[in-house]
Amino acid sequence: MLKELPLTEFxxxxxxxxxxxxxxxxxxxxxxLGAGLxxxxxxxxxxxxxxxxxxxxxxxxxxELEPIRVMLLASVDRDSEAYDAVIAAFGMPRTNTxxxxxxxxxxxxxxxxxxxxxxxxxxxxxxxxxxxxxxxxKGNPNALSDAxxxxxxxxxxxxxxLYNVRINLPSIKDEAYVAEMTxxxxxxxxxxxxxxxxxxxxxxSGL
Length: 207
Known about the structure:
This protein has 207 residues and is an all-alpha fold. It has one domain: Formiminotetrahydrofolate cyclodeaminase monomer, up-and-down helical bundle (Four Helix Bundle (Hemerythrin (Met), subunit A), Up-down Bundle), CATH 1.20.120. The chain has helices spanning 7-14, 23-43, 55-90, 97-138, 144-168, 175-206. α3 (55-90) packs antiparallel against α4 and α4 packs parallel to α6. The chain is elongated and about 75 Å long. The two termini are 38 Å apart.
């Protein structure tokens, strides 16, 4: 599994001529790192008498962030698997009418999956990004730069995931589905702008 690879090997695979793993898997990895940094900031705050007032809020945030981190990490492989399914669908035989119809249906199904996996990543990264301002505002100020890096990584992963959604949508023939996904891309992008503005105001004023 890609997520089990040493960082050096994963980076080498990204740099190879093979199309997968690519931007989607890298975005998932970056977002998972971002969530991890927010969790670390929580852990550097919890249990310290000085920050007792933030204990309950940060415990709740940490509990929500951990499954997000785990799923984002799993998406390093999920994204590459979705891409592999697209390639497999395009490689199906098309020597007669029946095969052509089966191939067309398989391509459409695979393209949907290749859009839905990064959309799921973007949703999860977006939720983690929403929580970043709580972590930055209530967390240990000695870890403020870590919270800031976490937010930046989550935003980068989210934006990368949305790029992967957008590049696949033109190949999908279901216009209603494409319109719905496009609308969600726009909503998640705007929400990320708002979340980043909120957390950056905290980070920049505290450094």
